[in-house]
Amino acid sequence: MTDYTQDSPDDEIISKSQRKRDMDSLQDLGKELVELPNDKLKRMELPEDLLTALLDHKRFTSHGAKKRQEQYIGKLMRDVDPEPIRRQVAVIKGDSAEHNAWLHLVERLRERLLADDAALAPFLVDYPATDVQTLRTQIRNARKEQLESKPPKNFRLLFQTLKGIIPEPGHSAPEEEQE
Fold first, then answer.
1. Within its chain, how far is the Cα of 60 from the centroid?
2. How much is the pLDDT for 92?
3. pTM for this model (two decimals)
4. Which contiguous run of DSSP H or E holds residue 19?
5. What are the angstrom distances between the C-alpha of 104 and each of 50, 96, 159?
6. Exposure winner among 39, 46, 51, 68, fewest CB in 10 A?
C-alpha cells in the first residue's frame, strides 16, 4: 500500500517555462541595476560579486560583451533574494508607495513643527532620542527664513534632520540611533 500522506520531492515541481520566466525576471532586474549610477549601486546592500559584475558591465563597450555580462548578472542573481533589491530599486526610482508615504509624513511633521510650538512636545514623546536643542534651532531658523523670504536652506535642513529621526518603514533604525 502506498503512503500518500508523505510529501514527495515532486510536490514542488516548477515547469521549465516558469523557470525561464523567473530567470528573465532576474535578468530584467539586473538591467535595471545596470542603469543606476555607480554611487547609488555602491550604497545599495548588494553581494560583492554582484556589485563587481554590475560595475564591470558599465566598462564594456562591445554589445556582445554587455549581453554576456547581463546574462552573468542574471546568473549571480539566482543566488540572491531579489525582493530586497527590488525594493531598493523602487525607492531609488521613486516607485515605492511606502517610501513616498514616509516622505509625506516627514513633510507633514515639518509643517506642523513650523506652524505651532505646541507640536514639538508630542513629537518629542514619539521620538525621545531627538536632540531637542538642535531641532529647536533649526525650527527657529526655518521660520526666520520664511518671514524674511530668504532661500529655504534651513527649511531643507530641517527636513533632512527629520528624515534622520523618523525611521523609514522596512528599514533599520535611523543612522544616528544605530551608534
1. 27
2. 76
3. 0.52
4. helix 16-35
5. 33, 12, 11
6. 39
Q: Answer for the pair 73, 30: CB distance below 8 angstroms, yes or no.
A: yes
Q: Region of 167 please: left (phi>0), alpha (psi -120 to 50) or beta.
A: beta
Q: Give pairs for 154-160: CB < 8 Å, separation 24+.
A: 155/110, 155/114, 158/110, 158/113, 158/114, 159/106, 159/107, 159/110
* CATH superfamily for domain 97-169: PSPTO4464-like domains (1.10.60.30)
The b-or-e profile of 89-119 (16+ CB within 10 A means b, else e) is: bbbbeeebeebeebbeebeebbeebbeeeee
Q: Tens digits of per-residue pLDDT, 109-122?
A: 999 998 988 888 89
pLDDT tens digit sequence for 36-68: 888 888 888 888 999 999 999 989 989 999 989
Stretch(es) of the chain classified as CATH 1.10.60.30: 19-93, 97-169
Give the SS3 label for residue 178: helix
Residue 176, CB half-sphere, CA atoms under 13 Å: how many? 13
